[in-house]
Hok/Gef family protein
Amino acid sequence: MTPFKTVLGMIIIICLTIILFAFINRGTLCDLKIYPK
């Protein structure tokens, strides 16, 4: 396996992890609000 394919595979795995995390936290991902104390 060439180093390029290894890096490409790692990038794909990272992207899939981020997408999966976004689907799990679908409601809270864009709901980051700063509340005054």
